[in-house]
Amino acid sequence: MRMPDNEKKGITVKVDAQLHAQVREYIEAHGMTMSEFVAKALDSELHPSQTRGGVNMANRTLAFQVPEELFDRIKDYLNRHHMTQRQFVLGLIEAELDRDMQQTNEVEQQPENEELNEDEELDEDDEESMNMSM
Q1: Based on the domain organization, do 19 and 82 belong to the same domain?
Q2: How far apart are CA 42 and CA 60, in angstroms?
Q3: 96-117 burial, b for 16+ CB within 10 Å, e for fewer?
Q4: Residues 87 and 128 in one domain
């Protein structure tokens, strides 16, 4: 039985008070309603893919442990900047990959410049040899 696309149904859940406070803080910081937040979270969980550059990409999971002191510092940073762990880590990864790509491109272009410098040196040496032989 298919429901009309615009029909809305309610979902009632009970969550830990601390989690509820985090959600409230998040939705206020992002100008969302609780309904928008829950709908987005459910959609993300049910359809775990993202669109990037017009291409639909499946998500993969990265999991790692960090020392507790670093974890606390990260949580503090995330709260101050109203970011999720996912946003933070993806931003770091993308920035590093972009930096690496730029550095790789610079290194790949460098040998061309060095070859030109060697040719220029040969031309100068050839000129000096020709002047001496005259």
Answers
A1: no
A2: 18
A3: eeeeeeeeeeeeeeeeeeeeee
A4: yes
Please state the pTM of the whole predicted model: 0.44
Q: 3-class SS at 23?
A: helix
Same domain, 49 and 107: no
Same domain, 29 and 69: no
Q: Mark 34-46 as b/e (b = at least 16 C-beta within 10 Å).
A: eeeeeeeeeeeee
Three-class SS state of 68: helix
Digits of tens for pLDDT over the chain (134 positions)? 566 667 888 889 999 999 999 999 999 988 889 998 998 888 877 876 665 555 556 778 889 999 999 999 999 999 999 888 989 999 999 999 999 999 999 888 876 655 555 555 555 555 555 555 55
Position 23, amino acid = V
Q: Which amino acid is at 36?
A: E
Q: Do 67 and 50 share a structural domain? A: no
